[in-house]
Amino acid sequence: MAQSAGGRRLVFALLGAVLVVALLGGTLVVGAERTVMNPANVADELDEAGVYESMAADMASEVEPDNETKVSVGLANDTEQPPIDEMVRSVVTPAYVQGEVEGNLEDIYAYLEGEQETLSLTFDLVPVKAGISEEMAAWVASLDPAEISPRMGDLAESESSFRETRESFTDDQLQRIQNETQREHTRPELLEIYDDRRDEVRDRMVSDLDSRVADSGNPESVQAASVAYGTVGIDALVAENASYDAFLDRENATRHDLADAVGGATRQRLDEDHPDQRNVTGDLDESAMAGLQTARTGVSIAGVLLVVLPLVALASAGAIGYRSRRRSRALWRIGIPVLVAGGLGVAVGLLLSRLLSGAMRVDATDPSPVGEALLGVFDSVSGAVTVQSLALVVLGLVLVLAGVAVGRGMLPVDDVATDGGRDDDEATTTDADAESTDSEPTDES
User: Fold this and answer.
1) Terminal Cα-to-Cα distance of the chain (whole angstroms)
2) 191 by DSSP, 3-state: which?
3) What is the pTM assigned to this prediction?
């Protein structure tokens, strides 16, 4: 009988050990599933660590177009230049980067979980190129005429300034005619000669404008729009009966045409320099891909354990309960392994963040934004495991105390279970009673 009692104790010890391992493993797997294996949680950590801001700044410098698409109509040498860096920053925002990163995170986790056979990480540059082009067009459209050409600014400033600029230009032309002739002419005579030469003056000015614009190196579409814009000013100066209102309408229309041309040229140059989709999978070296493959195997195993370990824990607890004839002993025989698993889980949780940061070689004293995000993920894993383990500690204590209370009759619960196995001391006591009964003499009288 003693050997039978020892065997039963061994069975309960093995079942308790299995329960401890299943609960501890399940706590770790569930903690990882809620944190590091959750793309939404990882995205939040990246956001809090400022990774998106850092990536946006780096990406802006990569997609920034050169400043060769100048806005010049050939009427001024000090033409205002577009603030390209500001435009790019207004388009390549942390919000844009966050959207792209979160999409790639979904693809990474789909790959790790076996939903995708291959990994393809891309950044969609179409909205970036479109945004920069639109910013360029909007900037040109918002320019004051004086920022494109001082003379255009004088003509557009006011109606009186328009008249004064025209009169000054006419006086210059009359003086030029006078300088070209030997006889002194009266003003009416000079005006008559000028009227006959207006078309000639206009053609010469347009030709000069065309030559200067051609030297700017702008794309042909921008050159054509620049000449069209400058011609509006020439017509306002040369035409005999030019109207201020008509000039303003034409200036506004051709400035927007110039804006569209600049925006289109910017988009064309960006299309030549950058693809619509930037594939960043090629940026991963062999060690990174090997690490992802290892992680994929680990995620696959974790998925199996996430189902198996809870079932093992339930089976172990059920077996302990079934083999114990007394409810009190079933409760504390289950409660003690739960308490042990919880205690071990708390210890592991407190050490986990430090162990993971050391394994990933993250400098906790001065981390980069990505390193800070990793530390945040490790802390979230550690926190989840610790909280879940504390819950197990509480549950274990409740089960142990309930077992004691039931055994001492402190709770209105019968301390008798359904048929199963018998407890070791119960089995010994029952067998001893049977032997005693068999050995007693029978009164046959």
Assistant:
1) 35
2) helix
3) 0.73
Query: Could you tell me if residue 171 is inside a domain?
Result: yes
Residues 149, 235: one domain? yes
- Structure tokens of 191? 């005006």
Q: Per the domain annotation, does 283 fall within a domain?
A: no
Tokens of 270: 């960006």
DSSP 8-class letter at 279: E
Q: Which helix (H) or strand (E) holds 380?
A: helix 369-407
Q: Could you give the CA distance from residue 46 to residue 367 in angstroms, rounded to a whole number?
A: 13
DSSP symbol at 408: T
151's enclosing H/E stretch is helix 150-157
* Of 22, 41, 26, nearest in space to 385 by CA: 26
- The DSSP secondary structure of 299-353, one letter per residue, reads HHHHHHHHHHHHHHHHHHHHHHHHH-SSHHHHHHHHHHHHHHHHHHHHHHHHHHH
CA 403, CA 414: separation in Å to the nearest integer?
12
Pair (379, 256) in one structural domain: no
In a domain, 109, yes or no: no
Find the domain containing 232 and state its range: 142-273
Over residues 346-363, mean pLDDT: 72
CA–CA distance, 405 with 328 (Å, rounded to integer) = 8
Is residue 394 domain-resident?
yes
155 and 251 both lie in a single domain:
yes
Q: What is the mean pLDDT of the chain?
A: 84
Q: Could you tell me which residue, 443 or 214, shows the higher pLDDT?
A: 214
- Structural domains in the chain (count): 2
